[in-house]
Design goal:
It is a single chain. The protein has about 210 residues and is mainly α. It contains 8 helices and 5 strands. The strands form 2 sheets. Strands 1-4-3 form a 3-stranded antiparallel sheet, sandwiched between helices. Helix 5 packs across helix 6. The longest helix is centred in the middle third of the chain and has 21 residues.
Length: about 210
């Protein structure tokens, strides 16, 4: 289980690597991102992230993770992604790093649109994930951490608006926490960046560098 993130990785990868198929991206939402499916009630079909009321209730490893600065967390995620890429390359895949700025890193591999090749890629990715688990795997998040995530989202909203992106009004902090707790899609200002029209790949990358999404 991984901490939920508001990142929309498949769309980001498609935007930055239009000629490459078969995106493989770390799946972490509320702070990184996930392409998980959502049912009619708006709730995710993926297992819910474990949420506790206070940081005192978190396991020590989870407290240490959230005690890191955002840049420190980004670097650990980047290192994890590089390890995953190296693992896949060791299995014979030609992978390409796709960076959307200092906060986002993903990788992709050309599966030629072949379902069999795609299935093998996913199998190999899962094996590599077991060898090199994400640094936020099995993280237990506290309500104060979710509230911090919400507050950071507001700063990202302000940053994006300065770059000319119209951002949907955020929900109340309580609704954001409730949505997160119930494994429903949570508000993210990056949704509006993804949906913005007339942005070149270079401009998109420039904005993500100025306004890291997590």
């Amino acid at each position: 289980m991984r901490v939920k993130h508001n990142f929309i990785p498949v769309l980001l990868c498609a935007f930055l690597a239009l000629s490459v198929t078969g995106c493989a991206i770390t799946s972490t939402q509320g702070i990184l991102g996930s392409s998980e499916s959502v049912n009619e009630s708006g709730e995710s079909d993926s297992p819910a992230t474990v949420v506790v009321e206070t940081r005192d209730e978190q396991p020590e490893a989870s407290r240490q993770w959230f005690a890191l600065s955002r840049e420190e967390r980004r670097e650990k995620i980047r290192e994890y992604m590089r390890q995953s890429m190296a693992c896949l390359e060791g299995k014979g895949w030609k992978v390409k790093e796709v960076s959307g700025g200092p906060a986002e890193i993903s990788f992709s591999a050309d599966t030629q649109g072949d379902p069999t090749i795609s299935a093998q890629f996913m199998t190999d990715s899962e094996e590599c994930d077991k060898l090199y688990p994400a640094p936020d795997s099995d993280t237990v998040i506290s309500v104060p951490d979710i509230e911090d995530d919400y507050e950071y989202g507001l700063t990202v909203k302000e940053c994006l608006e300065k770059e000319g992106i119209t951002v949907t009004a955020p929900p109340t902090k309580q609704k954001y926490v409730d949505d997160f707790r119930n494994n429903r899609d949570t508000w993210s200002p990056y949704t509006d960046l993804i949906n913005a029209t007339n942005l070149t790949a270079d401009r998109f990358r420039e904005i993500t560098e100025k306004c890291p999404q997590w």
